[in-house]
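ZP: hey, is the flavin-adenine dinucleotide complex queued? I don't see it on the tracker
AM: it wasn't, my bad. submitting now with these inputs:
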Amino acid sequence: MTDLSLRGRDGGTTTITAAEVEALRGTLRGTVCVAGDDGYDEARTLWNAMADRRPGLVLRCAGAADVQHAVRLAAGHDLLVAVRGGGHNIAGNAVCDGGLLIDLSPMTSVHVDIANRSVRVEPGATLGDLDKETQVYGTAVPTGINSTTGVAGLTLGGGFGWITRKFGMTIDNLLSADVITADGTPLRASASENADLFWALRGGGGNFGIVTSFEFRLRPVGPEVLSGLIVHPLADAKDLLRDYRRIADQAPDELTCWVVMRKAPPLPFIPEDWHGREVLIFALCHCGDRAEGEAAVAELRALGSPIADVVSPHPFIGWQAAFDPLLTPGARNYWKSHDLTALADGAIDALLDAVRRLPSPECEVFIAHVGGAMARVAADATAYSQRDAHFIMNVHTRWREASQDADCVAWARGLFDAVAPFATGSVYVNFMPDDEADRVEQAYGANHRRLAAIKARYDPTNLFRMNHNIKPAPAAEDAE
Ligand SMILES: Cc1cc2nc3c(=O)[nH]c(=O)nc-3n(C[C@H](O)[C@H](O)[C@H](O)COP(=O)(O)OP(=O)(O)OC[C@H]3O[C@@H](n4cnc5c(N)ncnc54)[C@H](O)[C@@H]3O)c2cc1C
């Protein structure tokens, strides 16, 4: 082993001697790898194939002690550092070129404390890991809609999915987090300990330290939920979306219905002659009483002339993974997102115009249905500020060949611009691509100033900068 020349925080290089690397190998419970070693490619490969980065050194952590060593190494040598949880963030910031990768993906334990109705989760666990353990007890934590997503990044950005309208966002169910801060100090953040840090972690992303353990409140869910897809021809979408927005506005908290517009995938329940043609899909979940659920979804099911309707009781774990086959890792992806308080006619026209011109067969537009319990939390109660959104549009542009990059990105940006007049201006940080650094302040709105002050307190030198970065406030202001 020779000395390593790694990328520094401010663009220069810094040397880690072979002796230091050997010492790390002896100290860490996890593994140390460089290019060519087992585990190096696994650690650096992200969900989004657009991010193809090669860190100079990878520390695959086995626990909080490893994370502390890694942070001290990074801080001591002024290294450019990236932190990886589940590796799903669209911006690809979980891996850096040339610097240090702190890989948390080996830390996957999930421990349910059913007596306290809580669960402790390590930062490499996926949503599927969490669901599998919590469903043993007929419980769940509200998270997202793709089971391979990491709990860590999703939580730190906010987190919403099928049961958020009933039980709140993922962050609304966070009880505490164990954190290694930029100087290597282990802290607990909760409502009663380091409350400013706890506030910032709930939406502020990976800016404030590395979370080594999340503690969540458990909610009663499942084992089955009334859920499924209703598939319609895109030609009927204008009328359907107008009815949908009314139904969605009046829906009980238990009912969540997202809209997906795309080319019909070759699923067995969709007639073959529809495969590859543009469709509108209502994807819905009712997490309450079965009879109430049937009544709540009746109006949606009666709309138009569906090509397929597969709404019925499904295991919650299965429904949480229903979109996995369409969202597999390895494709090239680019996203653009808007928060919307309403689905204006102009927004519907813009959406339909774009969906008629999908630039590749895997592109799709998601409209997430939020509100309910999520909206009953004050905008300044957590770092996640945009509680008034009723819908969140996410343009999932997805393709296979680099030669299609320009066309696909241009299509997404065009749709984003066309919907902008009908949007709030805020955006969910977890849906922001890597070219939206100038949107971070807008994303946090009135909460940004307080976040910058808390950043100055916990990470004054901006060690944790491979993220949608909140710069430390110039002079440390009182964050409380
Ligand atoms: C297919 C797909 C579906 C999705 N669906 C939803 C959805 O339904 N709802 C929703 O809310 N979101 C959804 N998302 C977005 C998701 O919340 C983000 O991509 C999130 O960042 C993923 O977390 P991760 O741990 O996998 O990401 P990573 O890429 O590993 O991490 C993202 C960033 O978080 C930081 N980070 C990660 N772990 C830690 C840690 N332990 N401590 C400190 N910082 C850390 C780092 O800055 C890192 O760059 C989806 C994403 C994908 C790709």
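AM: back. The chain has a mean pLDDT of 96.
ZP: great, adding it to the tracker
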